Amino acid sequence: MEKQSKIVSLINFIRKPIYPNEISTDSFAHKFWTVIQFLSLHYAISIPFGILIVVILTAVNYPVENHSVVNFFSNEPWYFTLLVGSILAPIIEELTFRLPLRYSALNVSVFIGFVSLLIFQLMDELNLPFMDLIPEQIRSVGILSGGPIFTASFSVGILILFLIVRQFIKKDAALGWYSRHVGVLFYLSALSFGFVHLENYTGLGTLIFLAPILVAPQIIGGLMWGYLRIRYGFGWSILIHSLYNFIGIVPFTILSFASERLTDFLNKPTALTLMNLTEYDKAILMIAAAVTSAIALILLVALISIVLDWYAHRPVRQPIIREDKSAIQ
């Protein structure tokens, strides 16, 4: 059987997900480069969507300050946004949305624990009447804000779930179920991951019909990262998720060290605002530009390589030889 390109392999899996018994045995270097290639492919798709989203939100006068991510970056110190955005958030989201795509008693237990916590927080945000019966000390606990007592209690809950799942669910039966329903799990994972990010757009109101466009980059990411999780393993989906967020955060992290003069220049780049920049601000701007350019160059090389890989493995049409009937006597 002819080897497929990485793009075709991804597309075929999205069209018809298949649950492999074992993860890929490809080398670490091969897997890492594949992650970088898919990362470049994701950005190549996400950037046009991002431009479209900005144009649409500008056209409908949606206030940028209503976006929770913008507020988060504006109000928190740079090291905290980098830690949460590039490490903690990807790990938590992968534990919730991608970990259960391959079966084990532990995977299922951790998934149930995190989903239960998310549902609990959602019910609290919706101010459901029965939530008033729960003490405020418990209701105010979030995934990232829980203290040692919460962490210990949550861990014990996961352990109890693990023991229950391992005792009452037979592994062979579970793997058979996964094999038959991997498509449902895969699509549900990607769609739920995408639409949960609607929470970033506060105050949408009647603009909710724009939801499929607003979360399209996340849904596409969910499909790619789900494929990598099932084929290569859980750590690789965390890696690509972390790198995706890191690339989007790091330029703004660098620029956060500059003064308000640089912010004025970026908001209104004119000769006058450029002249007002200090040498320090110019250095920060140059560093941010250099880092962004280096990342862009790496992603461009990766994108070209994965496209060339697709081109090299494309099916070649055989020429049709037509019989010359006039030559037949």
In short:
The protein is mostly helical and 329 residues long. It is 71% helix and 0% strand.
Q: Mind explaining what this structure looks like?
A:
71% of the residues lie in helices and 0% in strands. By secondary structure, it is mostly helical. The chain has one domain (6-15, 24-314).
Structural domain count: 1
Residues in helices, as a percent range? over 70%
Major sheet characteristics: none
Average pLDDT score: 84
> What order do the SSEs take from the amino end to the carboxyl end, as H and E?
HHHHHHHHHHHHHH
Which secondary-structure class do the elements indicate? mainly alpha
- How widely separated are the two ends? 41 Å
Task: Write down how many β-strands occur, each being a DSSP E stretch of 2 or more residues.
Answer: 0
Beta fraction of the residues? Answer: under 5%
Low-confidence stretches: none
Task: Supply Rg.
Answer: 24 Å
Q: What's the shape?
A: globular
Q: How many distinct helices? A: 14
Give short descriptive properties of this protein.
329 residues, mainly alpha, 14 helices, 71% helix
Secondary-structure topology with pairs:
Blueprint: H1 6-15, H2 28-59, H3 68-75, H4 78-97, H5 105-125, H6 136-139, H7 148-168, H8 171-196, H9 211-214, H10 216-232, H11 234-255, H12 260-267, H13 271-275, H14 279-312
